[in-house]
Amino acid sequence: MPKNKDILVIGAGLAGIEASLLAANAGRKVYLIEKKPYFGGASIKSEEIAPNMECATCMLAPKQSELLEDKNIELMTLSEIKEISGDSGDFTATIIKRARYVSLANCIGCGACFEPCPVSVNNEFEEDLSKRKAIYIACPGALPNAPAIDMDYCVRAKGDDCNKCKEACMFEAIIYDDKDEEIEIKVGAIIVATGYLLGDMNQFTTYGYGKFKNVFNAFEFERLRASNGPTGGEIQTRDGKKAKSIALIHCVGRDKKGYCSQVCCMYLTKFAHYALDKLPGVQVYQLYKELSIPGKGNQKFYHEVNEKGVRAMRAKEIEVAENGNGAGLKIIYRNEKVEKESIDVDMVVLAPYIEPYPGTDTLAKLLGVELGSFGFFKTAEFDSISTTRPGIYVAGCAQGPKFMEDVIIQAQAATAHALFSTED
């Protein structure tokens, strides 16, 4: 039997975008599905990329535009897998495509529908640092440049006959009677690129996350620095003040999870660079158990940043508390000699472990593939691409934590596997 040449890519972050473009450039039809109403994954939350501090948007936006214009790629946002059957070369995938309630064909992304909406909720893309409406775009510049209506919050879902967003739209783009769709496609190979999530900080009470307002996780700090973020790129406390001292705490949850997330030391070094660049005179502390700085470029960047005045120290048994005057935070820890010490700071930034994206276990069951001991997709011993089911491959942080350049390389390798496996 001839093999189906089409390819399904699950997850439209950096790995999924790279794989889709490569497969499309090889002349293949690609179905790219994404659970969110936008695509780009965690990468679009970043302002710059270490160690060379390239503009993240400048790197990703051209790829996103190319993808949207590629006739070989069918992007389906708000979509997820319901069922997979068949074998390598002849898979059948059933996809649930959720209603957007906004026409991608008619909407021009003007944003006139936002202000009239009576609902205001926390914006999860911005790590709850800002508010959004029930009809919303995750952040300025998110693609597709069209909002979606979140029926979990829209008052129409509660029986209210509200038409305010529709009345504000001059292009008849609002579709209140939009429906979910069930779509069946046939493909020859599947690439899983579902990405990752930062570990839940609320379970580590000694660090004060959720208890003290100026304890931030890594994504929260990244969005503070982002020019399209909630503060327009200003690094500030939740009180709106510029921090005079910041502590960056490594390895949060590492002992519990049992693995090093590999990238945290470098992004905290990037955060130190952010702080020194935006806050003249700021004192930055790095508190770590162990350092993971692989590669000459990373090591050069780490030493250059630290030489600007970062105080790096090995620390154990770290606890975050309020200082005596209630105006800041106190970090209590044991140094290399197991002596108790403390420092006072205005802001604390935590680097939690990286874990598989929620729902990875459910997706693995639908795909009929195994997960490894840490919950990421299991791959062959000498092959970090092939899953335990022929014809299904994995790319990016769905396989484990990794740097962006490694994500791209693995996406290229996964695409090569998918192309080769569907050749007759």
UniProtKB/TrEMBL annotation:
Residues 98-128, 145-179 form the 4Fe-4S ferredoxin-type domain. Keywords: 4Fe-4S, FAD, Flavoprotein, Iron, Iron-sulfur, Metal-binding, Oxidoreductase. It comes from the Bacteria. Pfam families: FAD_oxidored. Its cofactor is FAD. InterPro entries: 4Fe4S_Fe-S-bd (IPR017896), 4Fe4S_Fe_S_CS (IPR017900), FAD/NAD-bd_sf (IPR036188), HdrA-like (IPR039650). PROSITE patterns: 4FE4S_FER_1, 4FE4S_FER_2. SUPFAM superfamilies: FAD/NAD(P)-binding domain. GO terms for molecular function: 4 iron, 4 sulfur cluster binding; metal ion binding; oxidoreductase activity. Gene3D superfamilies: 3.30.70.20, FAD/NAD(P)-binding domain (3.50.50.60). The keyword DNA-binding does not apply. The keyword Nucleus does not apply. PANTHER family: COB--COM HETERODISULFIDE REDUCTASE IRON-SULFUR SUBUNIT A, FERREDOXIN:COB-COM HETERODISULFIDE REDUCTASE SUBUNIT A. Belongs to the HdrA family. This is FAD-binding protein.
